[in-house]
From TrEMBL:
InterPro entries: FAD/NAD-bd_sf (IPR036188), GMC_OxRdtase (IPR012132), GMC_OxRdtase_N (IPR000172), GMC_OxRtase_C (IPR007867). Its cofactor is FAD. Keywords: FAD, Flavoprotein. Residues 51-74, 225-239 form the Glucose-methanol-choline oxidoreductase N-terminal domain. The keyword Flavoprotein applies. Coiled coil: none annotated. It comes from the Bacteria. Pfam families: GMC_oxred_C (PF05199), GMC_oxred_N (PF00732). This is Choline dehydrogenase-like flavoprotein.
């Protein structure tokens, strides 16, 4: 078995320091993409971080672990016609992944490779006040976000053990696994193109330290992520004919679905408050609590529609000036199931050619309407008495007099929540790219196992869902390959 990774092994000690995660962006192991200018966000170009190292984006991410809501997965089961992708189907899979303090209760996992930590004493007093404020409005108190109930208030569950980040490479590529005689890990080696023979991938062209080499394989599992997996297919001539023609790539298999259906969560950054006394630095990872809710009510239950998060730092988009750390805090606000759909394209046939990333942020009226409600919910929480000891005054957005002014503020304040997915969507319809075994529909021996196959976003951060995709594939498809 050959594992090929474009980047190097993780080595920067900051990776394992939870509080340092925002500083990792822009370092040499971040792909550091740029989107196309976004009409829905005041014409802004958004920077998208992605990990380029063994462990991928799990080395850069914010460590929040949220399975999502059962309805999120019912949508996957419905679109594939395959109950493996339902909440009930995935429950044993999540349990196998997790080492959770509540493990063994029939819901959470115990002694799996990935720690899920429920913070207690370290939770910031600002996040505690935020949780009390949400509860005073009627949001239920939860113990983490992972038992199927998401609406409510709780500290975020984190992939941290003994105060250190645990990456997927730490969890699964253990020394025992790395020493297996049938595994070779090839780093700083980038797959440039898949070569096809009929309905098979026969070899991969790899650009690495030895220059261009070709590797032959019986089975290929593509895990390059929501941006690079569709890009690699397109560079190999698999994708929408028109886009391939425009990029100067000969079309081998016309698959209109490749690169389509791009989705991402946005967060408004933020509903922002000057503090009346110094805000102690986060002892966790700054984003300590996310409150999920229905729009327009704090009482209802079910699948979330909006989220309000508590940032123990002055978190604002580049359109605004952040005051000094310790003098302010941000309530972040967003929507959980955006209906806007974007796309990934390639600008040329070579790996150096820029990706064309168009998330089509805030293109639907529904998304803009729900964003207004999310901002309103953030302000309702932010102005509660429970936060009065911390709140000197609201700095952003201040007075907004019309829907147009609210929409302008949202457009300027939103930043990516870092959850691009959906660009090689699984499903049983003709436009889906992979089937429910994650096999590329047009080929016999190519599987895609990463965030690109998600038909739709889960309610919260998506890393847990990506791991469940990988574990399901390992148990039910890859198992039969060996
Ligand atoms: C800054 C940030 C914060 C986030 N915070 C959270 C969070 O708190 N909670 C959460 O749930 N999610 C979070 N996410 C999202 C989460 O990390 C990702 O959704 C998830 O890691 C995606 O996994 P993946 O396997 O699809 O892709 P990745 O983890 O990105 O892996 C793709 C891998 O493929 C390699 N690769 C790409 N192209 C090639 C090629 N041609 N040849 C060889 N190798 C290649 C890449 O270098 C990379 O290692 C965050 C992401 C970021 C960037």
């Amino acid at each position: 078995m050959l594992l090929i990774e474009a980047g190097a092994e993780a080595a920067d000690p900051d990776i394992w320091n939870p509080a340092a995660w925002p500083l990792l962006q822009g370092r040499d192991y971040d792909w550091d993409y740029r989107t196309e200018p976004q009409a829905g966000t005041a014409g802004r170009v958004h920077r998208w971080a992605r990990g380029r190292l063994v462990g991928g984006s799990s080395c850069l991410h914010a460590m929040g672990y949220m399975r999502g809501h059962p309805s999120d997965y019912q949508a996957w089961a419905d679109t594939t016609g395959d109950s493996r992708w339902s909440w009930e189907g995935l429950l044993p899979v999540f349990q196998a992944i997790e080492d959770h303090p509540l493990g063994g209760d029939g819901i959470h996992g115990k002694e799996g490779p990935l720690p899920v930590y429920l913070p207690a004493d370290e939770v910031s007093p600002v996040a505690r006040a935020f949780i009390e404020a949400g509860a005073s409005l009627g949001l239920p108190r939860l113990q983490g976000h992972n038992n199927g109930e998401m609406i409510g208030v709780t500290p975020n569950s984190l992939n941290i053990r003994d105060g250190r980040r645990v990456t997927v490479a730490d969890a699964w590529l253990t020394p025992a696994v790395r020493s297996r005689p049938n595994l070779t890990i090839l780093t700083q080696a980038r797959v440039r193109r898949l070569k096809l023979d009929g309905n098979q991938v026969c070899s991969l062209e790899i650009v690495g330290r030895q220059g261009l080499v070709e590797a032959f394989a019986d089975q290929v599992v593509l895990c390059a992520g929501a941006l690079e997996s569709p890009a690699l297919l397109m560079r190999s001539g698999i994708g929408p004919q028109g886009k391939l023609d425009a990029a100067g790539v000969g079309c081998v298999i016309d698959m209109p679905g490749v690169g389509r259906n791009l989705q991402d969560h946005l967060l408004g950054a933020g509903n922002f408050y000057a503090a009346r006394k110094p805000v102690p630095p986060s002892r966790l990872q700054h984003s300590e609590s996310m409150a999920y809710m229905r729009a327009g009510t704090f009482a209802a239950n079910g699948q979330p529609e909006i989220v309000v998060g508590c940032g123990i730092a002055p978190i604002v988009s580049e359109c605004f000036q952040a005051p000094a750390a310790g003098t302010a805090y941000s309530l972040l606000f967003g929507i959980t199931h955006p209906t806007s759909r974007g796309s990934i394209g390639i600008s040329g046939a070579e790996i150096g050619d820029r990706l064309i990333i168009d998330p089509a942020y805030l293109q639907t009226g529904r998304d803009r309407e729900l964003f207004r409600q999310a901002l309103e919910a953030a302000r309702a929480v932010g102005h509660r008495d429970e936060l009065a000891d911390w709140r000197e005054r609201e700095l952003l957005p201040g007075t907004l007099n019309s829907v147009a002014e609210i929409d302008d503020f949202v457009a300027q304040s939103v930043i990516t929540h870092h959850h691009p997915c959906g660009t090689c969507r699984m499903g049983k319809d003709a436009d889906a790219v992979v089937d429910s075994d994650l096999r590329l529909k047009a080929l016999d021996n190519l599987f895609i196992v990463d965030a690109s196959i998600m038909p739709s976003l889960t309610s919260g951060p998506i890393h847990a869902a990506v791991l469940a995709i990988a574990e399901t594939f390992a148990r039910t498809v890859a198992y039969d390959m060996v």
